[in-house]
Amino acid sequence: MAEPWHEAVREDDFSAEASVRGRLMEVALSGTADRTVKVHMDRLVHSLHAEAQRQALTGVNVDVRRLEFMDATCLKSFAWWIGTVHDLPVGDRYRIVFLSSPTVYWQRRSLNALAGLAGDIMSVQA
What is the pTM of this model? Predict the structure, then answer.
């Protein structure tokens, strides 16, 4: 059984919560992810990846339905994460699923572009 784990970021206009249940990590992002939280986003995705590897998780669900906006600087953090997982040996990879809002245009456009980079490990569910 996986060990309990929790990660949180709280800023004025941005928050992130992550926890592990069984072999799956649940992450919820809300607010605005722009250059003002880039350092926190980088730290968060590095922490998520390290914990997913440490616990040999099968997947990470990232709920962005309450994330109003994400700029290119924070999208680069996700691109790094997806690329890093994609570069792992096949047996060490885990799936990343973004839970998105079908009515938020930036999510459809940006997340689908990321999925195109590594569709074998990442998907988007609206």
Answer: 0.92
